Amino acid sequence: MNSLPLPELMSADRQHVWHPYAAMPNNLPMFAVKSAQGVYLELEDGRQLVDGVSSWWTCIHGYNHPRLNQAAQEQMGKMAHVMFGGLTHQPAVQLAQKLVAMTPEPLQNVFFSDSGSVSVEVAMKLAVQYWHNRGEPKKHKFLTIRKGYHGDTFATMSVCDPVGGMHHLFGDRLVPQFFAEAPQIPFQGSWDDSDITSFEQLLIAHRDDIAAAIFEPIVQNAGGMRFYHPEYLRRAKQLCEEHGILLILDEIATGFGRSGELFACEHAGISPDIMCVGKALTGGFMSLAATLTTTHISETFAQGEAGVFMHGPTFMGNPLACAVALENLTLLESYDWQGTVKRIEAQLHRELEPCRALTAVKDVRVLGAIGVVELHEPVDMAIVQPRLVEQGVWLRPFGKLLYTMPPYIIQSKELSMITDGIYQVIASISRTQE
Q1: Of these residues, 149, 228, 403, 423, which one is catalytic?
Q2: Would you say domain 69-333 falls under CATH 3.40.190.10?
Q3: Quick one: 40 exposed, middle or buried, by C-beta within 10 A (0-12, 13-18, 19+)?
Q4: Which pLDDT tens digit goes with each residue over 211-237?
């Protein structure tokens, strides 16, 4: 493939390419990446940036990792893709075994899909069809909590925050769901039963209509990078069991160690009926997601009206993606990932805390390999993004948040570049507000 000169590349991009959460033409700053290695992005103009968000939280082992590359090359020599209907293959079966072994009991069955949003769609369809199989079709609604985010497709949008989320423009076109107040007690706060009251009241009032409760465990990610108390999760699980409601946990962003536990629900010592995973599943190599459930749930489908689960993505169980995911998870298990995340967490605490003294800052919070600085006012992307690049780091702020979720392979010096970049940019914002 012949490369375009940089001015021609950027011109063609603005003319033809529609980027996520952007208009056409896109007037926000855009930076062309030439290559990526380790934790660095090399731009077409020669600059190198430390990637502080792991390409939207996926590249936990950085870019161009030799083990992932080798897994892909070996699989491409056999087959890059084959349909999953009526066929199976080694990468998918072994990856399913790996996921069952890694996730909490009693999750036993794995349904593969192409993206996180689709894995949540699958989870919601599983819950609705499960109750239909059991002769209770009235149970088809969902209970969730405000400040959450679960994807951009229509079913997933219906369980995202209806007011402060990204999808309020579609509100009158979405299936109405039940929204409890967002948890308020922080991760290390003192528990108070009043925090679960809204959830409990809605669950009891509508238990005959609710198929499942669905939310992100411990960390609400794109809804505001909020960390809440593990007891909330324990109580929600208990309430769901008491009232015959399934529990779906969206571990797409938190899965595979990001919060300090392998899965965020393990902070509370509980397991869901259905779990969604994605993002870091392949180490950012390519898109793949999965929905896991229990044997109890899956065995109802053969007895239901349809006799099967009515879903089947074309690229489901893609061999190339499964082979890379299997190697990525094997790599994760090969070293002390938990110690690595604790090291990152300690450094983020130490180096982001000074931001709290800046006038533009409302809060600073850290959990696992997640560091968040919340401002009083929304970030001006047209100004902040180029300033971060000038600092030699790549971050993708949103709303009032500057945050980092770096690759696990990051070294202390590189992480300091990220935290210093955040501080310097917020300091400049603070000076303009004084």
Answers
A1: 149
A2: no
A3: middle
A4: 999 999 999 999 899 999 999 999 999
Amino acid at 212: A
DSSP state, 307? Answer: S
CB under 8 Å to 268, separation ≥6 — which residues?
Answer: 217, 218, 230, 231, 233, 234, 237
Reported as a single tens digit per residue, the pLDDT across 142-168 is 999 999 999 999 999 999 998 877 777
Average pLDDT over the chain, rounded to an integer = 96
Of 114, 161, 195, 250, which one is the catalytic site residue?
Answer: 250
pLDDT in tens, 50-100: 999 999 999 999 999 999 999 999 999 999 999 999 999 999 999 999 999
Class of domain 6-27+36-64+338-433: alpha beta
State the DSSP string of 89-113: -HHHHHHHHHHHHHSPTTEEEEEEE
Please, are residues 39 and 409 in contact by the beta-carbon 8 Å criterion? yes
Burial of 380 (0-12, 13-18, 19+ CB in 10 A): exposed
Q: How far is CA 302 from CA 174, 290, 299, 305, 306, in A?
A: 30, 21, 6, 8, 8
Comparing CA positions, the residue from 256, 267, 411 lying closest to residue 347 is 411
Tell me, yes or no, if 250 is annotated catalytic.
yes
Clarify whether 21 is annotated catalytic: yes
User: Which residue shows structure tokens 């299997």?
Assistant: 326
Could you tell me which residues are beta bridge partners of residue 370?
367
Catalytic residue among 21, 192, 208, 209: 21
* Bridge pairing between strands 40-43 and 246-250: unpaired
Instruction: Report the distance separating Cα 74 and Cα 347, nearest Å.
Output: 38
Share of the chain above pLDDT 90, in %: 93
Q: Where are the domains of the chain?
A: 6-27+36-64+338-433, 69-333
Choose the catalytic residue: 139, 147, 237, 279. 279
Compute how many other C-beta atoms are within 10 angstroms of the C-beta atom of residue 431.
11
**pTM for the full model?**
0.97
Average pLDDT over residues 45-53: 98
Do the beta carbons of residue 47 and residue 303 sit within 8 Å? no
